[in-house]
Amino acid sequence: MDQFTLNLIVIAMSFALYFGIAIWARAGSTAEFYAAGQGVGPVVNGMATAADWMSAASFISMAGLIAFGGYNNSVFLMGWTGGYVLLALLLAPYLRKFGKFTVPEFVGDRFYSTSARMVAVICLLVISITYVIGQMVGVGVTFARFLEVSTTTGLLIGSAVVFAYAVFGGMKGITYTQVAQYVVLISAYTVPAIFISLSLTGNFIPQLGLIGGYAPTGGETYFLDKLDQVVTDLGFAAYTADTSNMLNMFLVTMSLMIGTAGLPHVIIRFFTVAKVSDARISAGWALVFIALLYTVAPAVGSMARLNITTTFWPGAVQGETFSQPALSIAEIDSNPDLTWIRNWEKTGLLAFTDRNGDGLIQYFNEPAPLTAANKAVADANAALAAAAADADKAPLEAAVAAAVTARDAVLAETNLGGRSLAEQGFVGNELTTVNNDIMVLANPEIAALPGWVIALVAAGGLAAALSTAAGLLLAISSAISHDLIKGALKPNITEKGELLAARISMAGAIALATWLGLNPPGFAAQVVALAFGLAAATIFPVLMMGIFSTVVTKEGAIVGMLVGLISTAVYIFLYLGWFFIPGTNLLPNTPAAHFMGISPAAFGPIGALLNFATAYLVSMMTKAPPQDVQDLIQSIRVPKGAGAAQAH
């Protein structure tokens, strides 16, 4: 059976499972649509929460980020798992005891203000819409590669699948579908990791293989030492190298932590359990289920990095990096185990070019001076080619010659493997594009694993993207139907009318998400940075103050959220462009240009501090919250049935 047919069968089977669950768990009331009737058990909710959280970013992108960023990108592991600890300890049980369906509803009641509720709706919509773009792009990429359709077709198929089980099932259908999706995605992530760990380290437990020996050379060299040796030979930073900016790393970690704890689609999962204690227990189970993937991710990333590097430098498998020539184009086209290279080349996520015409693909870290010199040569040649036939070409030819001479000087001065690039005949890095997002999806193909494993990974990537997309779309739908329509525009709407509005809102949100997936405003990483930064700067602070402070007023909450929202968005847009439109950034997105070294992805905690400070300052200048609101705050922090302390 060919790989395409196998992919089609496995993906079709997973979709049939999702559809069957959606029909079985169709929502019949607003309580079932928003919160699954608040009857979900803690283990089931923990598994559904893990699937809701482990998005395309976690499944597809995180290992790629770790693969090419090494230790620096461990912030994703620390931040995302740490966020669940905060959620379990500080938010989930109290929000469940409050007994409402949505985050804006809590904000509106706690801060006794429809305006506060509407500001929370705005923050929720901005966060959820930006985050869902990455999920839809992930669906398109996965379909495009494994079902050999266009990205547009893939997106439309994915949108139809989400529509089928989310619009009709609501939270009830989504919950049980996410349980199935978790089983699919965790299997798809760990099974290839086990195979690859066995081949590279001889250990079937990837977490132990990461710190074990390198099997192809007898295990005498540690796996990470081998990886460091290969990547440094090629001019890259050591994989295990420490960060150069600990402040930025700390702030990025904090942004991911409090951003996770403030993501609306994650928080609403804790409204689905029957009891307050179940909210805390389900958060614990969610951490367990998430850990099954997150502890494997460093092994997946590092092993993928070594596999793709040794594919292009075959001598590095058992000997020195340059002990054999680089991979040849003839080998790529003739070896069945390398067909993945041409397949991924079609997607645009992998690209190479034979710059020196030797038929080999030399992959290394091209230094900035060489990049600039190669560009100068290309620009000079382009100017010569564009000149009119009767133009005086002597100056243009002289410019080409000067650019080539300058590049030759750079090549003579740049060493790689103990010899200059000029001596080796290299003129620049020839593996020009390796997108982070292909590392997990292509990993089984790179390692030449069986076809059923490749098909399983395809189904897992789709499960990860679709599960999170469904949660985000439900958060958007709930904000529109429950908070905007019922909470402000039409308070007397019937339950039947609200359920219809919820389903229409969900359909509209899916249409918007599909359009944004087809026309993304920027790279997925940029959009995700905005989502986490805004969640950290807006939702997390207002929930913390709403639960643990009796002095913050409605005016303080509203102004605090607006300050957090605007300051974080402006800082991100200064470096990444206004609404991510290329060329509109006012400052270059480089470490040297960042204020105090703080990158756009690290600004969330600063926005949160501004939110807290503004809220308390404004609260000091406005009338204290009503006594009944203060009593409400005290009551949600007291365990049910607790009495007064007794003397003994």
UniProtKB/TrEMBL annotation:
Gene Ontology cellular-component annotations: plasma membrane
Annotated signal sequence range: none
Presence of keyword Amino-acid biosynthesis: no
Protein name: Cation acetate symporter
Cell compartments where the protein resides: Membrane
Membrane topology: Multi-pass membrane protein
Alphabetized Pfam families for the sequence: SSF (PF00474)
Residue stretches spanning the membrane: 6-25, 77-95, 116-134, 146-167, 179-200, 249-271, 283-304, 452-480, 500-518, 524-545, 557-581, 593-618
Family of this protein: Belongs to the sodium:solute symporter (SSF) (TC 2.A.21) family.
NCBIfam families the UniProt entry points to: Na_symport_lg
Keyword hit for Transmembrane helix: yes
Entry-linked InterPro entries: Na/Glc_symporter_sf, Na/solute_symporter, Na/solute_symporter_VC_2705, Sodium:Solute_Symporter
The organism of origin for this protein: Pseudotabrizicola algicola
Keyword annotations of the record: Membrane, Transmembrane, Transmembrane helix, Transport
Phylogenetic placement of the source organism: Bacteria, Pseudomonadati, Pseudomonadota, Alphaproteobacteria, Rhodobacterales
Listed GO MF terms: transmembrane transporter activity
